[in-house]
Amino acid sequence: MIIKSNPEEFQDYLSDAANFKGECQKVFFPESNEDILLIVHEANEKSIPIAIAGNRTGLTGSSVPLSGYVIATNNLNKIIEINKENKFAIVEPGVLLSEFQAKIKEAGLFYPPDPTETNCFMGGTIATNASGAKSFKFGPTRNFVEMLEVILATGEILTLIRGENKVQNGMLNLITDSGTAIELEIPSIKSPKTKNAAGYYLTQHLDAIDLFIGSEGTLGLITKIKLRLIDPPQNIFSTVLFFEDELKALQFVKSARGKSKDQNQLLDALGLEFFDKRALNFLSKAYPNIPTSANSAVWIEQSYTDDSAEDVFGSWIELADKFDADIDNSWSAMTDSERAKFVDFRHAISWKINEYITQKGLHKVGTDTAVPEDQFEIFYHFAQKIVTQNKLEFVTYGHFGDCHIHLNMLPKNSEELKTAKKLYGVICRKAVELGGTISAEHGIGKLKRDYFMEMYGEDVIRQMAKLKRALDPNGILSPGNIFDEKYLVNNA
Ligand SMILES: Cc1cc2nc3c(=O)[nH]c(=O)nc-3n(C[C@H](O)[C@H](O)[C@H](O)COP(=O)(O)OP(=O)(O)OC[C@H]3O[C@@H](n4cnc5c(N)ncnc54)[C@H](O)[C@@H]3O)c2cc1C
Fold first, then answer.
1. Cα(137)–Cα(132) distance, integer angstroms
2. Chain-wide mean pLDDT for the chain?
3. Which of 98, 443, 485, 486 is a good FRET partner for 110, with 20 to 30 A between their CA atoms?
4. What tens digit of pLDDT does each residue of 250-276 get?
């Protein structure tokens, strides 16, 4: 196993895509469970903190160490099995999502979770329960995870198989591979009825595997993953529709969302992604073919069969026409290579914003909020209005099918940064007040703990932290993520 102890050699592991910075003593690159167990046993005995790093594309500081060790999963990168007949794959956590998607496609199968950033590791996508455009139809990563092997902070190994172990009467009984019983009291908490990545997934009939999915490296190190695959759609068509009138674009999204959820309708979007005028302006240099009259855009994908093609296209054109989309200047793609350009277009807005702020030495302050459908327009206008009133530059885009907004403020100096942070809190509070979440896909990490506290209240945070303490009594795994340290001491 490679071990790096010279800081010059491990600078990359001291920050993530949010440019959150940390420090550590050593970075380990294990190649097997045995390697990991050596590190974990030592760390647990000496109470040395461990941060777990995927490919560090996270946007919350969650893979960044504050001290101690980093376990980097890069060399745990085998695709162990792709089973075409029974439609599943088994992988190690350090496999790149883009590589996995390509191999699955080669095998004639389909893995729907498609976070915009595909340069991430499979372990990272499980630990954050990543979601993407197609989560509108297929749900987040969680929906495709069938089995996890997890190394706990104590050095015990857990094998979790979906459907085999569920909460009963508020209790979850885990048995490790070596036979140790762990009893967990699972609180039933009221979570928003939206896409949600804030804190542990706790439900009355929780499946044990779901506690670990989205737990941001705080409960264990994921070492093996079995994923459900599906048959690929026969064909997918993709279109980026431009609108001169933003309100009509939003009404279009609302109507398309409703029709896609209605089984009796032909429209069945895989994803509904939105870009506001500022996002289009931001992209116009790289994409000069964005119509100059466009004030917003919606990217849609839908699968179809040869038989349904004409009716499906006709229905989308009818809906686009109803809301005055600029159909003549909109973009359409029918082949994989053309579709890939729209995927790049969507990725470009997230990526270019990050590049812009890094180059200018600015701080991005971006929301990851989602609210219930019936509150969405209220929320969208509220967020845009307060940022505009405060004269901050910003762009808005996001997974509007899931009522999930990324509003990125681009403060130019420390005064504006202060304002942006204040507004971020106001927007998060509004999302919670409307029954939504402060994080629909990126998680809490080290950057959103205060807002997380406001969302659930201290009592729920204490109950979640109690679960963490039961599995990681010395608090060595990913300290700083999700919980303030004060909730992890034993009498908290
Ligand atoms: C331009 C851009 C676009 C993005 N778009 C999306 C999007 O559409 N949807 C979305 O969900 N996210 C998105 N993200 C965020 C990020 O890509 C995802 O959160 C991704 O899943 C992180 O994977 P990673 O391998 O980079 O993990 P890291 O950032 O390295 O780690 C993320 C968390 O997972 C934990 N972790 C990693 N591996 C393991 C393991 N083996 N066991 C236990 N814990 C582990 C880490 O400790 C950390 O808490 C985007 C990021 C960028 C930069």
1. 10
2. 95
3. 443
4. 999 999 999 999 888 889 999 999 999
The secondary element (H helix, E strand) that includes residue 312 is helix 309-322
Alpha helix positions (H), 390-476:
414-433, 449-456, 458-471
pLDDT at res. 264? 81
User: For the segment 403-412, what is each residue's pLDDT rounded down to a tens digit?
Assistant: 999 999 999 8
CB 444 within 8 A of CB 453: no
Domain 2-72 has CATH 3.30.43.10: yes
In ligand 1, the atom with minimum distance to the C-alpha of 132 is 8
Ligand 1 atom nearest the C-alpha of 127 is 34
End-to-end CA distance of the chain: 37
For 113-141, letters b (16+ CB in 10 Å) and e give bbbbbbebbbbbbbbbbbbbbbbbbbbbb
Mean pLDDT of 444-465: 95
Distance 54 CA to ligand 1 centre (A): 7
User: Residue 56, by phi and psi: left (phi above 0), alpha (psi -120 to 50) or beta?
Assistant: left
For residues 121 and 126, what is the distance between their CA atoms, to the nearest angstrom? 9
Sign of CA dihedral 280, 285, 289, 292: positive
CB-count exposure of residue 238 (10 Å: 0-12, 13-18, 19+): buried
Domain edges within the chain: 2-72, 79-228
pLDDT band at 492 (very low <50, low <70, confident <90, very high): low
Q: Which residues are paired to 147 by β-bridges?
A: 161, 226
Fold of 79-228: 3.30.465
- For residues 451-477, give the mean pLDDT: 96
Residue 299 amino acid letter: W
Q: How far is CA 170 from CA 75, 464, 476, in A?
A: 38, 14, 26
**Stretch 309-336: mean pLDDT, rounded?**
94
Tokens 């159909």 correspond to 327
Q: Which residues line ligand 1 (CB under 6 A)?
A: 16-17, 52-59, 62-63, 73, 93, 115-117, 120-121, 123-125, 127-128, 130-132, 216-217, 221-222, 350-351, 354, 441-442, 478, 481
Identity (one letter) of the amino acid at 137? K
